[in-house]
Design goal:
The complex is a heterodimer of chains A (about 110) and B (about 140).
Chain A lengths: L2 H8 L2 E4 L9 E4 L3 H7 L4 E5 L5 H9 L3 E4 L7 H9 L3 E4 L4 H12 L3
Parallel strand pairs in A: 2-3, 3-4, 4-5
Antiparallel strand pairs in A: 1-5
Chain B lengths: L4 E8 L8 H12 L4 H22 L1 E8 L3 E8 L7 H5 L8 H4 L8 H7 L3 E7 L3 E9 L1
Antiparallel strand pairs in B: 1-2, 2-3, 3-5, 4-5
Helix pairs in contact in B: 1-2, 2-5
The chains are: A alpha/beta (about 110), B alpha+beta (about 140).
């Protein structure tokens, strides 16, 4: 599924978008960066409430399709700046991590 | 290829936010050189954890990377406080990181176990009061 279609379906708020024509092949939800790092795969959407710049480093290392900040997490200017520099797509939602993950699961893993 | 490509990085200990720049650079280089995505991933994760550890615990350090056809060798060296109990530090879930670090999503005690998991050879030498040297080798 294309990222732009997923973000439209989920009604995500675009924060920093470099390439929404990317594929999203799976998703991972989590906030512990060392944990996420080993489980987030390339072309995955990552749902988290963690909102510091290290999130961008982890997303870049994993080559994630996007980061979706849940719970309307506040996103600082330096996070956005770093994401821009590394071409990481950022979105936000007011929904909880569970709710948005459930919605992603419904659309992404539907047959 | 035959020859060895050597890279050197200074990991800034004052800036927690810039941690990951060295591993991102190595990742980029390995991709350009055509290493498999799996190799690139293993190197990136292991090295990033090493970088983060140097920033969290040791006030920074240096990273030397040797890229050859058969393997990628990463040596991370710092002059931090050293590790008192290496065996304990190697076990999953054990961490001495400060609360401030934990609130950033680190300090879960996964760093060293992750480094071990993603490398073919892992060696840790540490002397309290002198520093720590971690050598990671990933076979291609």
């Amino acid at each position: 599924m294309k990222l732009r279609d997923l973000s439209a379906y989920l009604q995500l708020e675009p924060i920093q978008v470099s390439d929404d024509a990317r594929d999203v092949v799976g998703a991972y939800t989590g906030d512990l960066l060392s944990w996420v790092m080993t489980r987030l795969e390339a072309d995955f959407a990552w749902v988290t409430i963690m909102n510091n710049v290290n999130v961008i480093a982890v997303a870049a290392l994993a080559d994630a399709s996007c980061v979706i900040f849940s719970e309307n997490a506040e996103i600082s200017a330096d996070v956005i700046e770093k994401a821009k520099a590394q071409n990481i797509n950022l979105y936000r939602t007011v929904k909880s991590s569970f709710e948005i993950s459930y919605m992603i699961g419904k659309v992404l893993y539907a047959e | 290829m035959g020859e060895i490509l050597k890279l050197h990085f200074d990991v800034d200990g004052d800036d927690f936010t810039s941690a990951g720049e060295a591993s991102a650079e190595v990742k980029k280089k390995l991709r350009l050189l055509g290493y498999s995505p799996e190799t690139v991933r293993r190197v990136s994760i292991a090295m990033y954890e090493g970088e983060i550890n140097m920033v969290i615990h040791a006030g920074g350090g240096v990273a030397d990377v040797e890229i050859s056809e058969d393997c990628i060798k990463i040596v991370l060296e710092d002059h931090g406080p050293g590790i008192e109990n290496i065996e304990l530090a190697m076990s999953e879930g054990y961490s001495t990181a400060a609360d401030a670090v934990r609130s950033l999503g680190f300090g879960a005690g996964m760093g060293i176990p992750n480094m071990k998991r993603y490398t073919d050879s892992f060696n840790l030498e540490s002397t309290v009061g002198v520093g720590t040297k971690v050598t990671l080798v990933i076979n291609t």
